[in-house]
Amino acid sequence: MRPATSFILAALFMATPVHAAALTVGLAVPREGSSDILGEQMRRGAAAAAQETGAQIVEADDACTAASGIAAAQNFIENEVDLVIGFACTETIEAALPALKDAGIPVITPAVRTASLTDKHERTGWPVFRIAPRGDAERGSVARILIERWRDAHFAIVDDGTIYGRELAENLRAEAEQQGLKPVYVDTFRPQLDNQIGLIGRLNRAGATHVFVGGDREDVAVMARDAAGLGYPIVFAGGEALRSAPGAVPLATGTLMIGLPEWSEIAPQDLVASFREAGIEPEGYVLPTYAAFQIADQAGTQAEESETSLAEALSSTAFQTVIGAVRFDEKGDRAENPYRLYRFDGTNFVPVE
Fold first, then answer.
1. pLDDT tens column, 33-58
2. Which domains can be identified in the chain, with CATH numbers?
3. Which of 97, 151, 155, 220 has its CA 20 to 30 Å from the CA of residue 182?
4. Distance from C-alpha of 210 to C-alpha of 237, rounded to nearest angstrom
5. What are the backbone dihedrals phi and psi of residue 146, each rounded to the nearest 5 degrees, phi first?
6. For 320-343, how does the pLDDT look when each residue is reduced to its tens digit (9 = 90+)?
7. Burial code of 111-130, b = ≥16 C-beta within 10 A, e = fewer?
8. C-alpha distances out from residue 117 to 62, 139, 254, 328, 331, Å
9. Segment holding 128, helix H or strand E
């Protein structure tokens, strides 16, 4: 833990009562490279939560290599941790899990989304529990939410040709057609153009009133601007990529997004205020990591009371956390689907009931 962060958060939470059966928790976080910012977010969440729960933290490096995963697992085993929280890279966590399984040490990851991690559960028996949504959860949510809302609309589906955009678009098209719905127009567009007037003209001729775009924020903004310039009323929707930083063209008011909540809007506001008063923005993985420590603490209590293992408690208990209720299914994925529909109000994305 970096000294300044540790000192500030200790001061914030030193008055919080310590749980009687505090755990020793391994924390696997990136320390260098492009993922260092994720590691720092996890450290901040861990430091605050440890003050609440009394957990003792043993940190190891997730360097996004198999070697670092094996080394982290050995470090945790030698330090006799009760449970591990963290990991940002699939390669690292998959290398660590065999040894952790043999040692009876479960893992809660707030970050790794790779679907195969938990799909392997029946074969591997890896004791891994995931707060982060699965990698395929976004495209499933796009289809579920939009098909229900656009059942009677003349909708179109376009994508930018990237793996991300095409998977979102193709899954929506396939799911819609399984339910007897056919888009009025399907196409792959050329991204990052100064204008999309040609595409807008084709959408207009097809009679599309609603368009899902498998692409980034700037392309959606350009399409909406060009449609408005042609006097063509149309509703655009996209995935999580719409939360990216604004570009040269403002995103149109009314644009729909299927995405995850901003955890700082869901969490108790006194906790959020405490972070901000300390000069720390509770963004990214700060609050999911905090929630993972809350889950570990509650699972420890459950295991102690029922005389079961931590892994069994994690598999059978509903947990109350700063990011909402969390349960894990039989594979270790989060049972609740956190994806929601949002509408851009000109400044922020606000939930749509």
1. 778 899 999 999 999 999 999 999 99
2. 3-133+264-326 (3.40.50.2300), 137-259 (3.40.50.2300)
3. 220
4. 8
5. -75, -35
6. 999 999 999 999 999 998 999 999
7. bbebeebbeebeeeebbbbb
8. 16, 18, 36, 14, 9
9. strand 128-130
